[in-house]
Amino acid sequence: MPPLPPFASDTQCPPPGRYPMTWEEVEYSLVRAAAWKASSTRPGLWVELQSHRALVECLFGSVTRIWLAGSFVSGKLDPSDIDLAYLIDADAYRGVTEPDEIADLANLSDREWCVKHGMRIDAYLLSLPATVDFRDLGTVGAMAAGDSEVFQMLGLYDEIWQRCRAGHRQRRGYVEVAL
To answer: Which residues span the domain enclosing 84?
Structure first.
């Protein structure tokens, strides 16, 4: 996969868009690269992300993709946290039904809970659509039940991850990690 493009000078973030990277490429590009040698937070954040991901995978069985954004995916030397969204297979997402598992997932997507437990993570859990065949999307009644809302949430988070705090006119890119 191509590396993350250079950060834009006005936002210190990747140019607008979604950039596919492997887990190993993210670690190298955003934690281990020479530009981050003096960072006091990036290595620790990476360890915390690995722990958080393991906990989420324990509950779902696996994670399909992760969207990474915010200051971790920027030129900021010492980001304070990692903003991310886990994209979960629809069957796995719907398969979490036990009250204890639901409570665990609520905790893992609660920033305050994560910080209290030593993880500077701001995580969101999103279902992927159950409709697998793209041709079914335009056929009335062929889309899986609930997929309309799933697509809306994915679009919402795509928009959120591409926004800069400075305002809606400035856009930034984010990283998609396929697992």
So the answer is: 17-178
How many of the other CB atoms lie within 10 Å of CB of 172?
Answer: 24
On whether residue 8 sits in a domain, the answer given is no
Residue at 12 is within a domain: no
Considering its fold, how many domains does the chain have in total? 1
Under a CB-based contact definition with an 8 Å cutoff, are residues 66 and 87 in contact?
yes
Predicted confidence (pLDDT) per residue in 103-122, tens digit:
999 999 999 999 999 999 99
Question: 64 in a domain, yes or no?
Answer: yes
| Structure tokens belonging to residue 106 | 């609520």
Provide the CB-side half-sphere exposure for 30 (13 A, CA). Answer: 32
CA-to-CA distance for 17 and 169, rounded, in angstroms?
14
Q: What is the pTM of this model?
A: 0.90
Q: Is residue 4 part of a domain?
A: no
Q: Pairing between strand 167-171 and 163-164?
A: antiparallel
Q: What whole-number distance in Å separates Cα of residue 129 and Cα of residue 172?
A: 25
- Predicted confidence (pLDDT) per residue in 84-102, tens digit: 999 999 999 999 999 999 9
